[in-house]
Amino acid sequence: PSCTGAVAQPLRLRVREKRELKKKNSQNQIKSMAKKGIPEWLNSSLWSSSPPPPLVDDRLLRNPPATSVTPPSPPIVERPPLSSSPSTISTAPAPPSKSEVNDLQNGTGNDGAGSETPAATSVEDVSRKAQVVAELSKKVIDLKEVRKIASQGLPDDAGIRSLVWKLLLDYLSPDRSLWSSELAKKRSQYKQFKEELLMNPSEVTRKMDKSKGGESNEPKIESPGALSRSDITHEDHPLSLGTTSVWNNFFKDTEVLEQIDRDVMRTHPDMHFFSGDSAAAKANQDALKNVLTIFAKLNPGIRYVQGMNEILAPIYYIFKNDPDKGNAAFAESDAFFCFVELMSGFRDNFCQQLDNSVVGIRYTITRLSLLLKHHDEELWRHLEVTTKINPQFYAFRWITLLLTQEFNFVESLHIWDTLLSDPEGPQETLLRICCAMLILVRRRLLAGDFTSNLKLLQNYPPTNISHMLYVADKLRAK
User: Fold this and answer.
1) CATH architecture of residue range(s) 178-205+245-346
2) What is the pTM of this model?
């Protein structure tokens, strides 16, 4: 016994020494992180654990990783493609999530952001729902309070997200008494846009002829919609090259309309709501085409740019699945005005003439790079100096498509709740979220080379969305 005690005492001393050494090393590590500008709270086991095994989801099928990656020579001259080819999309449809099965196969219902685990849909969600319902029931809604609630993610119930997004995008006034007149006015205006901008040139010329009030002395032609030869002026002729010719403008729009049609047809091919041969899917596709076409014609400086369909899709989906059938019937017109408002904050990213300006997409990507350098210089240096990964290689799609291609559809809705709710505007919030995405996988990035890191960032791994948004909020400038 005495011998055992004599041996045990130095063993306990060695254990104590190891604990003290481990504690000292941990303190030194934290001090080292502080010197590098990395806040202590980032050293959290929530994100620093070993990477999870890869999962199969719709992101990987819409944007499959390249079989081999070689370091390209900077700088990028042309804009990289934003989406996969149709042939790639159709090869292997992704299995839908449970939430998609519930709402998309039945054609109704679930339009909310899903939580990472079923347990997360309990007390906290019920409390948040009660808070937002109470705010929305007031005669004059407190937008500041609504933004605060929405920043944590909106409940998946009772059309709450549809109403809140309309408030956050300034489509509805906080004063509920004005809603009826505001909606009637804007929906009537959209109807007028459709009549004027989506009309066949033959119908346009006939309408123009009627508006002149001129009556021809020639016998009336029985064929409906036909014009007498004397009524067709040079500018109204299909072969006219005049700048005011409706036919000439119609043919100029053909290329844009074809691009819109191609992109809409491959919007979320894994979701029955947007894809398939059903009448509902085709009606939804037509609605997306109408909105994008009208936007392109009303904004000739930008027109339509590939990827706009991915930004419109979540808005239209939420509005179309509003349990209020009256609101759902006007999902197209409501989505148009909300899409215009959202694009007003991002339109410079889509204007190629502004790419190299202080408001263009390349400057926006530079701001993301500087944000990462400010919060985690070690990671920034490894990515851009050591492995020479130009942030345009991955951030271009992240920013222009508002992260709709990096996460599944339900997760994207949760992220958009935060994007739309920030009083600073969605652009600033988006950059913080992108920076958080880099920080959350910093250990894998610091251990990786050009090829592995580029594959990782172009196919971002599954993550805890709530924690990612928490990290992004911590990056907010104080």
Assistant:
1) Orthogonal Bundle (1.10)
2) 0.70
